[in-house]
Amino acid sequence: MMRAVVTTGTASSAGFPPGTAGKTGTAEVGGGREHAWFIGYRGKVAFAVLVKNGGSGAQAAVPIASRFLRAL
User: Fold this and answer.
1) Can you tell me the distance from the alpha carbon of 35 to that of 55, in angstroms, rounded to the nearest whole number?
2) Which range of residues forms the domain containing residue 9?
3) Where are the annotated segments for Disordered (predicted)?
């Protein structure tokens, strides 16, 4: 399931390196605000990205995670 998120799901347009798996999410915190998150792994590296008041995980957190992994 986590692999499908980056190959055909909500994070598929980010261009993650091969072998990446993860899950997007949005945390509703009230007042019309939402925190965006993406948690995942590639090989032995596990990571989490949280963007406070960022909106959806796919729009705010996924691009940051993708840039991070491509920079390794």
Assistant:
1) 6
2) 2-71
3) 1-28
